[in-house]
Amino acid sequence: MAIVKMKKLRVLTTADRRDALLGGLLHLGCVEISEPDAMTADAQWAPLFKKAASSLAQTRTELADAQTALDAVTRYANVKEGMFTPRAAVTREELLGEETFSRAREVSQAVGERLREIAALQAEASRLTARRASLLPWTPLDVPLEREGTAHTVFRTGVCPSGTDTGAMRVDLSQTMSEVYEISTDKLQTYYFVVFHKDDEFDVMEHLRFYNFSVTDLHAMHGTAAENVEEITRLLAENEAAQEAAHSAIAALADERHLLQLYVERLHTEESKEESGERLLTDGTVILFEGWANAERANEVEKFLTESGCAFELSEPTAEENADVPVQLKNNFFTRPLNMVTEMYSLPAYGSVDPNPVMAPFFIFSYGFMMADMGYGLLMMLASIFVMKKAKPNGATMRHMIPLLGLCGVSTFIMGALTGGFFGDLLPQLAMMLDPDTTFTALPALFSPLDDALAVLIGSLAIGVVQIFTGMAISMYRQIKRGEVLAALCNEGAWYLVFALLAGGIVLGQIKIALIAIVVLLVLTQGYGKQGLVGKLMGIGGSIYNNITGYFSDILSYSRLMALMLAGAVIAQVFNTLGAITGNVVTFFIISMIGNALNFALNLLGCYVHDMRLQCLEYFGRFYEDGGKPFRPLAVDPKLVDIVEK
User: Fold this and answer.
1) Is the pLDDT confidence value at 1 over 60?
2) Could you tell me which residues come within 8 angstroms of residue 483 by beta carbon, excluding any fewer than 6 positions away?
3) Which of 169, 201, 350, 463 registers the highest number of CB atoms within 10 A of its CB?
């Protein structure tokens, strides 16, 4: 498998063909329109063309409204959607058809009107609730609130801090013609109704100020506080009924939810189209753009552009343009799940090596080596099959992660069969509980992580040697392909020979001769590319130090394969032993399953993290050239429904 080849595309056509052009490219799904920054910065192009206008802002507004409507119908109709709820299957014609679009827009607008009605009712309910709360303390007062007094008296309502001494207040006001009535009190305030003669207003208010009296103006209301509270309660009941009716009206549109999903997907498609439309350049009469097309589908692109009456050019990218070429990986069912790992690290640069085919065997095998349990592997395979069949994940992460889980489950099961692990030593422990004299003490195994730890360590380091040597071979291949044959021989080639000489010296017992040959070899090759005697000497010394320490540390890093295999086996065995101590089969299963579940969850993540580290640091460092930009063609890419072909 490899990186998909791209072709540089330049297109010129009349401005009235804009929508048809974008629609056709959308259906093709293999052309990415580039940002026109380079062209707008060019002094020759800038005076002639400017970025084309688009309806992107309006489309995004409609999309937000449609998504809100869909969420509202889902919420009020109490639609339950789990991870394994199947998505609806639709054709492109259904998704992009105008009849569906018009009907869905009507439903979205109807839901939007109801939501605005609900929002207004909720705002009114909040206002009424606040007013009722402010009136509740005054309900014992049987004086109409609009009354401000009589011909000779003044009525005042107000509050003082809770705990105010009402008796002292009355004593202070005894020299005036006034009366103070305590209406109610709560934790914060005491509510008063004060009646006084008009001529004493100044003296009364001065005395009340000493008690932090604050006037509460209730004169805008009519009737008593109790009557107002009763009326507000009635209005709140009507408001709640109106909200329930609006909720029910939205819930009644549950059957139209599928239409709203199509509408949201259609608007996502329109959003993508308008985003690409903003990258077009125009002078009002013609439009032009540059972009990238999948070379494997260049004939389809040529046919469409020719039939559309466009002037265009498809060309191979130059070496200077390679950094701008987007990257699309072409993989099969075995290597495609590794896109998850590659994309988390960084896409390869265009024109370099697709790492997935050369990484997949090592990643999957190393994962199984670390997990190494038939029970865990079986769970991983079953979970992968179940999720892929039921949920049919189409998100970028889940679409790769679930198949990768299944592939690693196969490797885990095979390694578990080789080490005799099935949820640790669950079966032998169970057999001994049922029959203490049983001869079944272990499953058949090629080797045991606990009994053959040294052999497992040597095997782990051997895996590291093979993978690092593979990375060196890929690096040599790339250099030779670029015509750098001597560089390849003096770098990786020389170190291949170093390891061969060292291995031969150990096998033949001629270590001294092998070391002399290695020193001569390194002196002759490691100064390649350096200028002058000093430069060559520094190059030799630096290369010897960096490579010896680098190879040693990288290979030693693979000891983590043994460490995780051993840790998983020990933890599973410990929990099985704890369960067996109880002497009860039911308790044994409970303790064993809890422990194995924790061990499984820990290893599921731990093995992935350590496996990624081996690939991204020890392996990729040998040959990988990152920095690629993902290929993002204008295409229909639904998330809520599945596209099926007729």
Assistant:
1) no
2) none
3) 350
Q: Is 84 helix (H, G, I), strand (E, B) or coil?
A: coil
The answer to whether 239 and 131 are in contact (CB under 8 A) is no
**Residue 313, helix vs strand vs coil:** strand
CA distances from 524 to 142, 434, 494, 512, 532 (A): 110, 69, 9, 19, 14
Q: Which amino acid is at 98?
A: E
Q: What pLDDT sits at residue 627? A: 84
φ, ψ at 524 (rounded to 5°): -75, -25
Task: Return the amino acid letter for 127.
Answer: R
Average pLDDT of span 182-192: 93
Distance CA 369, CA 562 (A): 8
Phi (first) and psi of residue 511, to 5 degrees? -60, -45
Domain 140-223 bears CATH identifier 3.30.70.2750 = yes
Least confident of 155-169, 480-494, 554-568: 480-494
Report how far residue 446's alpha carbon sits from residue 457's, in angstroms, rounded to the nearest whole number.
15
In the chain, domain spans: 140-223, 336-433+454-630
| Burial of residue 449, with CB atoms counted within 10 A of its CB: 0-12 exposed, 13-18 middle, 19 or more buried | buried
Summarised one tens digit per residue, pLDDT across range 603-642 is 999 999 999 999 988 898 888 888 889 999 998 888 877 7
* 544 phi and psi angles, rounded to 5 deg: -65, -45
- Per-residue b/e over 341-362, b at no fewer than 16 CB within 10 Å? bbeebebbbbbbbbbbbbbbeb
Burial 228-238 (b: 16+ CB within 10 A, else e): bbeebeeebee
DSSP letters of 207-260?
Answer: HHHTTT-EE---TTS-S-HHHHHHHHHHHHHHHHHHHHHHHHHHHGGGGGHHHH
User: What DSSP assignment string belongs to 558-581?
Assistant: THHHHHHHHHHHHHHHHHHHHHHH
In the block, which residue shows the tokens 């499953």?
443
Q: Note the pLDDT tens digit of each residue in 299-310.
A: 999 999 999 889
Q: Flag the least confident range among 61-75, 218-232, 392-406, 433-447.
A: 392-406
Angle at 141 between CA 139 and CA 146, to 5 degrees: 100
